[in-house]
Every structure is written in structure tokens, then in C-alpha cells.
Design brief:
Radius of gyration: 13 Å
Structural class: alpha/beta
Strand content: 15-25%
Protein name: CoA-binding domain-containing protein
Order of helices and strands: HEHEEHEHEH
CATH class: Alpha Beta
Largest sheet: 5 strands, parallel
Number of strands: 5
CATH superfamily: NAD(P)-binding Rossmann-like Domain
CATH architecture: 3-Layer(aba) Sandwich
Length: 135
């Protein structure tokens, strides 16, 4: 099942804004979040690491939660297990994000419905690093 049409994917990647909070991003270079964050940076996006350790990653200071980020975030890219993703989507809505992106394998249909009902664009079970070269 597809949880976002190509037009929504394109909109989030090209016109939703360039500040992307990457939830689950740490300095573990073996994790998918690290490679995707690097791809987002190469595409001109500002990445904001969000991880309990609040590490500086790829030159950007990290925050322990979305609520701690002291500036607006446009897109929240979620690299946590599906069981934890729903609350992150709710936090993205509360933080005033324009869009939420759940990575490949991260699926929460109730969170998708809540996020869309709140007026945000949402992409689920896709990867921006895969989608960017296709634009």
C-alpha cells in the first residue's frame, strides 16, 4: 500500500522547507538515519539531529526531543520503530512542522490519519534518499 502519492513526495522534498529534524539520528554511521541525513545535506537541507543522546551529527547540534529545538522545523523525518513513531508524529504536529516522513518500514496508519487530519503532509514507508534522485 502506498501512503503518499508522488505529488506529496515531491512537495515535501521540494517546497515544504529545508529544515529537517531527523528523529533517531546519531553518530552511528552504520545506521540508515546517518546515510539519509547525509543525502539530505547534500541536497541542500539543514538537518537537525533528534536523539536522546543529543549528539552533534554531521556538524549539526543535536536535541534530545523535538520540543527542545528552539527554531521552526519544516519536516520531521522519523527513524524509530513503528511502535514509537505515532507519538513522534504527534510531537511534530505540536511543534508546528509542515510535514512528517516515516522511513521505510515505519508504519502507523492511525498516526498517518491523525497527522493528515491536523493538516500536515505525510509520507510513510518511503525514503527521501531514494526519492530525491527521482525528482
Amino acid at each position: 500500500m502506498s501512503y503518499a502519492d508522488d505529488a506529496t513526495v515531491r512537495k515535501v522534498l521540494t517546497s515544504s522547507g529545508d529544515t529537517w529534524a531527523v528523529v533517531g539520528l546519531s553518530n552511528n554511521t552504520a545506521r540508515a538515519a546517518y546515510g539519509v541525513a547525509r543525502a539530505l545535506q547534500r541536497a541542500g537541507k539543514r538537518i537537525v539531529p533528534v536523539h536522546p543522546k543529543a549528539e552533534t551529527v554531521l556538524g549539526e547540534p543535536g536535541y534530545a526531543s523535538l520540543a527542545e529545538i528552539p527554531f521552526p522545523v519544516d519536516v520531521v523525518d522519523v527513524f524509530v520503530n513503528s511502535e514509537l513513531a505515532g507519538p513522534v508524529a504527534d510531537q511534530a504536529v505540536a511543534a508546528g512542522a509542515k510535514a512528517v516522513w516515516f522511513q521505510l518500514g515505519v508504519i502507523d496508519e492511525a498516526a498517518y490519519a491523525r497527522t493528515r487530519a491536523a493538516g500536515l503532509d505525510m509520507v510513510m514507508d518511503r525514503c527521501p534518499a531514494i526519492e530525491l534522485p527521482l525528482l
